[in-house]
């Protein structure tokens, strides 16, 4: 019996689904397949490396190049990128909009990153805002939100959310609302706020497909904040209880809405938090190693079970 015949028998018996059969059979038949995702990743990485190289060049050779040349070059790059996007972009819609050209998203990506480098250089060289320099982050976040919604780009939306997170934490610290070691407090508030904002936009049908990005960022920030508090002596148990409850809710939601990624990292964060608490004060390295071997097997098995549900 050939491999394809065996696959057919498995599909007939219900051992594998039709979708699984099609995916596996295509490999054995050596059918042509799309590398669109892989090419997109490489293009995004190419833009990221390009802007990283640009940032390094500006930082290393700014005395040789001069402020005028650097500012003019960065400004020209931003203007050219945004001009291309606004001249080629499709009309705004509250619903999903496809990219008009193959390179459109990458040009938008490049312009957004170049804008961040430009603002960073302005403050580095001229200290315009001085102690309030973190407001550059707020300005960048506002631009990224506008670009994300105008051109329907979830990657730029993630830039906006991460930039806003930086501004949120730095502003709270600057005004004396928290101490450095208590960064988790604004992180928790930030996560709750953006989850509510994303849900509000979803309810109003403004780019409803953006909700997933809001929830991904909010969940990860909230999980990291709770895990960071599990090891504390006094409040650690409270953080652990909150982490376990959140992990359970997210895993349930992942099942209910068929979102494996949420359930997967909820399991991992929960495991990390429980492990930190259980292993506090355990001096025996062999016991720690045995714990990770045994518990790790169960966690991997559970994640694998989640993947096939």
Summarize the structure.
Helix content is about 75%, strand content about 0%. It has twelve helices and no strands.
Provide an overview of this structure.
The protein is mainly alpha-helical and 309 residues long. It folds into 3 domains: 1-32, no CATH class; 34-160, no CATH class; 178-309. Helix content is 77%, strand content 0%. The chain is built from 12 helices and no strands. It has helices at 3-13, 18-28, 36-65, 67-88, 104-126, 135-151, 154-174, 184-203, 211-230, 236-256, 260-278, 285-308. Mean pLDDT is 80; it is low at 33-37 and 172-180.
Average predicted local confidence, pLDDT: 80
Beta-strand content estimate: under 5%
| Poorly predicted tracts of residues | 33-37, 172-180
Q: What is the overall number of helices?
A: 12
Give the end-to-end Cα distance, rounded to a whole number of Å.
29 Å
Rg over C-alpha atoms, rounded to the nearest angstrom? 24 Å
Number of beta-strand segments? 0
Supply the number of structural domains: 3
Tertiary shape = globular
Classify the helix fraction into a percent range.
over 70%
H and E order: HHHHHHHHHHHH
For the sheet with most strands, the description reads: none
User: What structural class do you assign from the helix and strand content?
Assistant: mainly alpha
């Amino acid at each position: 019996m050939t491999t394809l015949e065996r696959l057919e028998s498995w599909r007939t018996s219900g051992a594998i689904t039709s979708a699984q059969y099609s995916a596996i059979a295509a490999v054995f038949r050596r059918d042509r397949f799309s590398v669109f995702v892989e090419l997109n990743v490489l293009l995004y990485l190419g833009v990221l490396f390009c802007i990283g190289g640009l940032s390094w060049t500006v930082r290393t050779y700014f005395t040789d190049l001069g402020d005028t040349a650097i500012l003019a070059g960065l400004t020209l790059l931003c203007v050219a990128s945004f001009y291309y996007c606004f001249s080629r972009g499709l009309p705004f819609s509250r619903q999903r909009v496809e990219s008009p050209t193959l390179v459109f998203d990458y040009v938008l990506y490049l312009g957004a990153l170049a804008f961040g480098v430009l603002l960073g250089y302005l403050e580095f060289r001229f200290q315009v805002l001085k102690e309030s320099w973190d407001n550059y982050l707020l300005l960048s976040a506002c631009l990224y939100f506008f670009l994300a919604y105008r051109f329907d780009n979830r990657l730029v939306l993630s830039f906006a959310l991460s930039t806003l997170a930086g501004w949120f934490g730095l502003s709270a610290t600057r005004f004396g609302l928290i101490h450095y070691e208590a960064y988790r407090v604004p992180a928790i508030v930030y996560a709750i706020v953006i989850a509510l904002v994303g849900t509000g936009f979803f309810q109003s049908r403004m780019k409803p497909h953006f909700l997933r990005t809001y929830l991904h960022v909010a969940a990860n920030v909230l999980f990291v904040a709770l895990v960071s508090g599990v090891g504390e002596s006094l409040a650690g148990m409270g953080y652990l209880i909150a982490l376990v409850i959140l992990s359970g809710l997210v895993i349930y939601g992942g099942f209910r809405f068929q979102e494996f990624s949420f359930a997967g990292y909820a399991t991992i964060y929960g495991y990390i938090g429980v492990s930190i608490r259980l292993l506090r004060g355990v001096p025996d390295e062999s016991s720690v190693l045995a714990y990770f071997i045994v518990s790790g097997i169960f966690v991997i098995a559970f994640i694998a079970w989640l993947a096939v549900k």
